[in-house]
Amino acid sequence: xxxxxxxVNGSKLFKLFFTAIIVLVICIxxxxxxxxxxxxxxxxxxxxxxxxxxxxxxxISSNNYTNILKAVHDDIDSYxxxxxxxxxxxxxLADFTDKQFVLARDMIISSDFQTVVVGxxxxxxxxxxxxxxxxxxxxxxxxxxxxxxxxxxxxITDIHEANKPNEELVYPPDESYIPTSGLV
Length: 184
What we know:
By secondary structure, the chain is an alpha/beta fold. 28% of the residues lie in helices and 30% in strands. It is elongated and about 100 Å long.
């Protein structure tokens, strides 16, 4: 029979425990910093958290309109080639060409129903056939273009007149909006 006499030094045990906790906290901080500032690739994030599916034509509704519009404007490159389908009215500015217009909606910005025009810049050969403020339904592909800087431009593949929808107003992006360009 062997008898061991173990003597525990309280100050050494405390120092060892304290050092282990400090090392663990530093490892956690390093991991979090790495994930926030460079650990996740943009492609992985945008494919997992995208507002628009990448493989088919996506229907945009009044409910998700501004979330998608903001996501595409924030990270154009991730959405190039995506096909979308939605309804809006024709809105033109003085410096647009005959082939350009904004497929617009009015977004409520205050409690007293003040609105601003929001929408996608569109290009098509038959754009001049549609009057300002007329409601149309389009299908188009997102491309990257230039209008006073980089901007998503929809190349329209199908366009026709439509009735004014029941919900013609849209609301600012909600809490379900996930900014894809901010996650790196």
